[in-house]
């Protein structure tokens, strides 16, 4: 067997209320941070996106060099990493400890040689350095509070502007960069500052809802634009020809400004309420505006057309905790923030499942005969019809660990208080709390429950009651994942030690216990439709594909999910060899597996 990754469906940026989120851009791509991952997202084809996982702490901002060869990314620990984006190796060019705290923004100079990084350090709030050696190229001083943004003029003579929570903008000459003057225009936090591509002007925006323009060479104030936003302005970006300025505000609007006329020419109102507050933006060289909602939505705006987004890109913002296919080309992914996302396996297009969903982590998803059910840490079980929650929910006796659906439509939930059987929003039966269920699967009239006692408990279901029929032993840890083969003849059981035992269901005995290559908890198991191969995902970040006919043979997809794989599933039953994995980095990777005979 062999494999090849064919697509990566990215997560959306992480956001925080009242904090400006920096988006980088290069041609028809944007770059942003989420957790420890840096995403370079292709706006035309999500599957061609790139994920970088070299940081050991949460990332905050990333920018691609003007040359297009490198990306600089920063994290909350003050580390900047410069890595190669040409090719797939992502070779590290350099890693530098810049400040002793969170980095909020960074900027490249026009020669792709120097970088200025700013943030909230203990000794200093910014640093200018060479990208290859880390040696200093001046000093960034003049601020007394955390610096939120930095921008460098790309024409000689080089200049740089920084904006901070002390309501000040500091203008620097360079290179080497040195303090020139302090600009006192804003009366509240300055959230963003950006140089125009031409270098003639730079603009600043802030929590006072004001927009100022300055001379790019001298830093002198050129103009204050009319007040158009009603809330804090979190980000600004320039058109490629430097004639227009785009601003994104917490008042849920994005405005387009004509710099020569000094007036707003277009306004996009993206909704109302906290979820639609705009906290970041970028104007790509392909002349597309991307504005970021605090909900994580990436709003694609065309400055030449209608007053509504041309497209809204949705994707998980938090870790994917459960995922299942719903048909040959679509799957659902539940996340740690309670949302469920429907994603096309062909195009990568994604949309949130509408309606009243979970308010906490989605613990499990299950489907059978077109019926989809979800359970969450809000102790609720909900149905999903197509792309919307059905509205009806059932309260569970305890926090759920896993969910399964039998052929007759009965939903079984495993939790701390045992097993609950639910159908038509009514609890039909339950099993004693002496069995703490950690995983569950159903096939025909059989229900398999993995327990904390390191055993698999087989129950028979007659439509009214659960009766324990057998106990399967062989695992060495808490049984964290169980899965029946499609015909119900085999049962795979994975545990917290990384061991998987394959059982013959009819004979009630182990067929093999040699599937032991994982080194951490097994989180997910899924069979191909022919029952010949089983895929496993684990917290050890790896995915393995096991052969029933040749138990000693396997294929290892190493580092398939940085941070841990929480779900693996075959698309269209694995008929065309497509396997998907998802996990802690909120991204979905699709692999093409070739089974050799």
Question: Any overview of this molecule?
Answer:
The chain is an all-beta fold and 597 residues long. The chain has 2 domains: 92-312, Methylamine Dehydrogenase, Chain H (7 Propeller); 320-594, 7 Propeller (Methylamine Dehydrogenase, Chain H), CATH 2.130.10.10. The protein is 0% helix and 53% strand. It is built from no helices and 55 strands. The radius of gyration is 27 Å and the shape is elongated.
How would you summarize what this structure contains?
Helix content is 0%, strand content 53%.
CATH fold-type name of the largest domain: Methylamine Dehydrogenase, Chain H
Percentage of β-strand residues: over 45%
The total domain count is: 2
CATH homologous superfamily (4th level) name of the largest domain: YVTN repeat-like/Quinoprotein amine dehydrogenase
